[in-house]
Amino acid sequence: MLTLCLRRRLSHFDLNINVVCREPVTAIYGPSGAGKTTLLNLVSGLTRPDSGHVELDGDVLYSTAEGTDRPPEARRLGFVFQDDLLFPHLSVEANLRYGYQRLTPAERRFDPGQIVELLEIGPLLGRWPQHLSGGERQRVALGRALLSSPRMLLMDEPLASLDQGLKSRIIPYLRHVRSDLGIPILYVSHSVAEILELTRQVLVLREGEVLAHGDFFDVARDPEVLPLLDEYGLENVLPVEIVGGGEGACTARCGEQILRIPACHRPAGTRLFVGVRADDVILARQSPEGLSVRNTLRGTVTEVAAVGATRLVTVDIGHRLVVKVTPEAVAELGLAPGLQVWCLIKTHSLRLGPEID
Amino acid sequence: MTLADVPPNLSPMSRSRPRRHRAAGWILLLALANLPARAEPVTIFAAASLGGALSELWPPHRHPDVSLSFAGSSMLARQIDAGAPADLFLSASQDWMDYLQARGRIDMTSRIDLLGNRLVIIAPQGEGFELTLQPDTDIGAAFDGRLALGDPDHVPAGIYARQALQALGWWPALADRLAPASDVRAALVWVERGECAAGIVYATDAAASRNVEVVTTIPDSLHAPIRYPAALVSRRSTASTRRWLDTLRSAAARAVFRRHGFTLLTASE
Amino acid sequence: MLSPQEWDVLGLSLRVALASVGLSLPAAIAMGWLLARREFRGKLLLDGLCHLPLVLPPVVTGYVLLLAFGRRGWFGPVLDALGVTLAFDWKGAVLASAVVAFPLALRAVRLAIEEVDPRLEGVARTLGAGPWRVFFTVTLRLAAPGLWVGALLAFARSLGEFGATITFVANIAGQTRTIPAAIYTFLNQPGGEDAALRLVWISVAVSLAALLGSEWAARRARGRQEMR
């Protein structure tokens, strides 16, 4: 359990955080410049707050009142950055051992072999960071942090500089860390989809203030949070259950509605998340015919929110779906709460997400 | 010599009839052209130890026509050898004048021994000590630390000093206790600051400083004669520069040199 | 090939230059780190003071050293109590060389440390390394090429140092007569040009060797960390 009470003056605003994180993984979400990185720096001890209190599982790491200020090296918090920050003058193996070799045998929670195997970085050991690919470097950075036996991992957008393919390959490793190694994580990201791969517990930060804290789906309802979610392209996440397979596509059930999703090679009964971007949903006043689109979901408009120059229409299809349309369309279709609409989603606009466990 | 020295009958102010006035003008022009151009500027390279005296003789604000360059005699000689635009050279040692003479850089006919100097043993002001100039004096015990002097390997003052020390039989005791300076002024500074308890410098240097006292004067019989030869640089030997050289032997100049402690050599004009 | 006196002069010059690097480089590293990593009032003034020996005529520097460390200098009594003599001693020559070499080494070292990503130092802290361990295992290692440059500059400057040395410790054969002083001595003697020239060639050879050596070392250090 992590107690964070932090105050720090920044150039454009004051950071003011007062939360208790109980879940194993808490995601920190917010627009750029909101203070997410500063928050992690404060927790790790690399930056000193103006005042506050940081406590992890009863151990006080910082307290203005008590005069405690544990230096970073004594906090045992692993830190993984967006830039892997591997030591360029050390080999991969030496990088991995940097934190590990200073620990006494009693302090060592993990053994190098275990981590190397978990992250599949065995073949990389004798090489130099400069000669690794981005994904390989991030895995090594993760391994290095883990081998320092941290009590908690702080991750600052660790996958941001990787392409989608790499991301989806590394996320399983992160899930292993969460589930198999049992290390709590503070995970900063501006990608909702990425966050949801790891946790539903999210802390939304804006201009240094905590806007919301809790389960993602509850938090996302908050009208103040919605515009933030759209900053990077809002992606709806729908929980579905596989019903059957087919040619090039699968059939799944979301609540009462049936969806054709891309082929996923999973047995019936599997439950997983699928994502669809708010931009990729078309609204219609009538159920259309003769269209190639495979999914027409019936729902009721619950809310029309103005966000900048566009409109975000929330539709209840048994599950919450947010659709981005132009103000012109809203006017033309007369979109208003209570109106029945059809949501058109192409199969290929649906992105397969992680399984629900 | 100024226009005031011109005989009256050549003065343009003389009254005469117009035709003779014009003739007088031509004569004047000719005469002026032949006059030694006393106002012509001169460049003098002189040994550093002459600095005080020459600057007093020719203060810059009153004599902008005189360019004085002071340095070690060796440096000056090499510069003149390389073609530096000096008209006159005053050296602190015969060696370097001989060097230039052998290479034909000076006008031999103009060479004279201008001044002499004496060597003195000095100590910091207020820290003088007893010293008798006898070979059996225990010079090693007379003072602590090192003896400051110009580098005996190349500085004229140091060369003379070594000769004197050798003549006194003191060289073996002091050879390892020397503080050789690149010029005699630096040696003076060390003694002034008390960095060295004793030093050998020119009498002129000691006289110029308020922070040292003279322990004893070294008789000139103990070393080669200290001579400051002066000569005109060969390519620049003209009537004008000769006059400047002559000025150095004038009564006014001799008075300045005497005041600074130099020994005067050539008979005054 | 070299006469005994020339060996003596060369040996003394090398000893003085190496000792000078040994004195000025650590000082440059400490000061370079301070100027690169810390902000404080008076930083600009300190920076300027450090560069003073670079802009002052060497003879002036030598005179200041005399004022400070001479027997009657400001620190004279302290040195006396410690039984250390610097004036007219090769140790004084080392000090004079180190003082004039310090600003050169400082510039190279400071630049090198500034180039080290401070975030790497932060990562190392989170991995459990205290500030000193971070300094030695990360900062210095990554700044190594620049440190070699600084060492070379200090060495070369010390090898050629003359003005401050001659003013502070005189030109004592065997103690403080380094190569430049010996060259100066020969030039001041009629007919000494040949001997001076020989020493010139010797110092060129030594300087070249030092340059190549430091270049090689810097390259080796840099090769380990090609930036992406």
Describe the structure.
The complex is a heterotrimer of chains A (357), B (269) and C (228). In chain A, 23% of the residues lie in helices and 36% in strands. Chain A is built from 10 helices and 21 strands. In chain A, the strands form 4 sheets. Chain A has a 6-stranded mixed sheet with strand order 7-8-9-3-10-11, with helices on both faces. A 5-stranded antiparallel sheet of chain A has the order 2-1-4-5-6, covered by helices on one side. In chain A, strands 14-13-12-15-21 form a 5-stranded antiparallel sheet. The radius of gyration of chain A is 23 Å and the shape is globular. The mean pLDDT of chain A is 87. Helix content of chain B is 36%, strand content 23%. Chain B has 11 helices and 11 strands. A 6-stranded mixed sheet of chain B has the order 2-1-3-10-4-11. In chain B, helix 2 links the parallel strand 1 and strand 2. The longest helix of chain B is centred in the first third of the chain and has 17 residues. Chain B starts with 17 loop residues before the first helix and ends in a 5-residue tail after the last strand. In chain B, 39% of the residues are buried. The N terminus of chain B is likely disordered. The longest helix of chain C is centred in the N-terminal third of the chain and has 34 residues. In chain C, helix 1 packs antiparallel against helix 8 and helix 6 packs across helix 8. Chain C starts with a helix and ends in a 5-residue tail after the last helix. Chain C contains 11 helices and no strands. Chains A and C meet through helix 2 and strand 7 of A and helix 7 and helix 8 of C.
- Total beta-strand segments of chain C: 0
- The ordered string of helix (H) and strand (E) elements of chain C is HHHHHHHHHHH
Classify the helix fraction of chain B into a percent range. 25-40%
N/C terminus separation of chain C:
49 Å
Helix content of chain C: over 70%
The main β sheet of chain C shows up as: none
Order of helices and strands of chain B: HEHEHEHEEHEHHEHEHEEHHE
Strand percentage of chain C lies at under 5%
Q: How many strands, what sense, and barrel or not for the largest sheet of chain B?
A: 6 strands, mixed
